[in-house]
Amino acid sequence: MTPQSWSLVAIMCGVTALGLSALFVVVVQTRLYFIYPARQVNGIRAAMLKSVAGTFSDNRMYVNSNIPAFRVKSGASFVHTFLCLQIGAFTGLTTFAAGIYRWQEATVYFVAPLVGVITAIVMYAVAAIYLKKNDKPHADAMMAGGK
Which pLDDT does position 143 carry in this prediction? Predict the structure, then answer.
């Protein structure tokens, strides 16, 4: 491939990484917003089950209203991980394509994967910290930035 071809690859991979990053931000924010209706429904269900405990005891739905916004073993975390891996891959590919004709070969083969892995780890960590930091008991407190 020519240097111009690698420049095009770098641009395409960079744009893809940015697009996936935007999608990642939306997915993380949606997780935070989703947790409040789930907590509300679970709280209502738990209260209603107390009033019908004598006639209905076979509940098979969630009643926990303390669901954390971030859990490592959740479907949302799986999606976050997968998106972070994709973002890291495209960031690493961008670095590789941008550096293949600019740096020494050994440097490119070392730096590009390193950039990708670090990007994926940082993205996941930032999302986890954001979800934990903004996990308030009530949606109004989260929106207002309170406790």
Answer: 67
Question: What CA–CA distance (Å, rounded) separates 22 from 12?
Answer: 15
**pLDDT at residue 1, as a whole number:** 79
* 45 phi, psi to nearest 5 deg: -60, -45
How are the residues of the chain apportioned to helix, strand and coil, as percentages rounded to the nearest 5? 75, 0, 25
- For the beta carbon of residue 97, count every other beta carbon within 10 angstroms: 22
Instruction: Spell out where 16-111 has E strands.
Output: none
Query: Is residue 104 classed as helix, strand or coil in its secondary structure?
Result: coil
- C-alpha to C-alpha distance for 43 and 79, rounded to whole angstroms: 26
The number of angstroms, rounded, from the C-alpha of 79 to the middle of its chain's C-alpha atoms is 7
Q: Does this model's pTM top 0.90?
A: no
